[in-house]
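Hi R.,

As promised on Friday, here is the backbone we talked about, encoded as structure tokens. Could you run it through your design pipeline when you get a chance and send me back a sequence?
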């Protein structure tokens, strides 16, 4: 497998695995995402779409490489957002968002009941940590590390065979 193929697969599998972990912790782990948690997810969705485009552009290696670079950039964007979010959780940065609970439609009484039934999740509170690092922190570490690895792999040129 060439370096570009490895980069292509990582650019698809890494954001997919991180999103699976995020949604798994939400739906099966009972953790409710805050607004900044959602901000970290959007670049991963973009990275998956770009990685799929890189597979579709296999016949044009430079075009496929460009999609891999863009996927790595999207993964890095999620990592940097996670870094900022982890800083907000630790009190290093001041958050940009306010804690909100949005409701559905209906009458005023239904809207109030719906809002009150939803959990209010603060962006500056850690809901879960592993080895002393929050989920936002893990996203920062993993996304940034893999974005750099994907970029490096995609830049490597194949060795000439003797």
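Update: got your reply. Pasting your designed sequence below so it's all in one thread:
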């Amino acid at each position: 497998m060439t370096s570009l193929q490895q980069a292509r697969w990582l650019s698809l599998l890494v954001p997919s695995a991180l999103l699976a972990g995020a949604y798994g912790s939400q739906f099966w782990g009972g953790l409710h995402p805050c607004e900044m948690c959602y901000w970290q997810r959007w670049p991963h969705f973009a990275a998956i779409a770009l990685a799929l485009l890189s597979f579709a552009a296999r016949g044009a290696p430079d075009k496929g490489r460009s999609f891999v670079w863009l996927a790595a950039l999207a993964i890095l964007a999620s990592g940097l957002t996670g870094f900022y979010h982890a800083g907000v959780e630790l009190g290093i940065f001041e958050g940009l968002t306010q804690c909100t609970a949005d409701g559905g439609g209906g009458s005023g009484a239904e809207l109030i009941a719906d809002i009150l039934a939803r959990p209010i999740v603060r962006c500056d509170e850690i809901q879960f940590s592993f080895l002393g690092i929050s989920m936002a922190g893990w996203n920062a570490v993993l996304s940034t590390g893999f974005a750099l690895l994907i970029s490096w792999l995609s830049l490597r040129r194949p060795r000439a065979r003797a």
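One thing I noticed while checking it: The chain has a mean pLDDT of 81.

Thanks again,
M.
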